[in-house]
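Researcher: Sequence recovery benchmark, item below. Answer with residues only.
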């Protein structure tokens, strides 16, 4: 089974607001970079999208180590929170679970691969996390420009 590393990050301006996500997949000397964004989203959605898109890009079952600066995602994967939420009908002990659509997608990807998750401190000395952050911010900024154009058109009555 191939061993792959996925570095991921998300960025959002406002919550909700324009956002971006990015991930870097590494297998041996091979590297693949993916990124995207949304005009109106949240930081947690972008963090989740980055991990999901990275796992989704794998063409075969792999042993995967995900690196994320989101403790929420790391704990959901490592501490079994996802399975608990699923058992409760996608609810937390304290009530509503936000983004159940993405958590379901993540669980589906986790069932296809052998995944461990490592939390890394954001905006620190992890080169690949910093690259993901820069890519996610770049996408977020592009989405912000799109949002501005949409708002201008709407206020102009188009």
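Model:
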């Amino acid at each position: 089974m191939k061993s792959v590393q996925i570095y991921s990050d998300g960025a959002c301006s406002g919550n909700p607001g324009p956002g971006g996500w990015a991930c870097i997949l590494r297998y041996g000397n091979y590297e693949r970079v993916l990124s995207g964004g949304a005009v109106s989203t949240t930081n947690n959605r972008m963090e989740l999208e980055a991990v999901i898109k990275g796992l989704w890009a794998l063409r075969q079952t792999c042993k995967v180590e995900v690196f994320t600066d989101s403790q929420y995602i790391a704990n959901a994967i490592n501490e079994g929170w996802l399975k608990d939420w699923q058992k409760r009908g996608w609810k937390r002990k304290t009530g509503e679970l936000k983004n159940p659509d993405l958590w379901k997608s993540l669980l589906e990807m986790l069932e296809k691969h052998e995944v461990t998750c490592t939390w890394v401190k954001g905006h620190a000395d992890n080169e690949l996390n910093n690259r993901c952050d820069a890519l996610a911010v770049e996408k977020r900024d592009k989405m912000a420009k799109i949002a501005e154009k949409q708002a201008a058109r709407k206020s102009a009555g188009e």
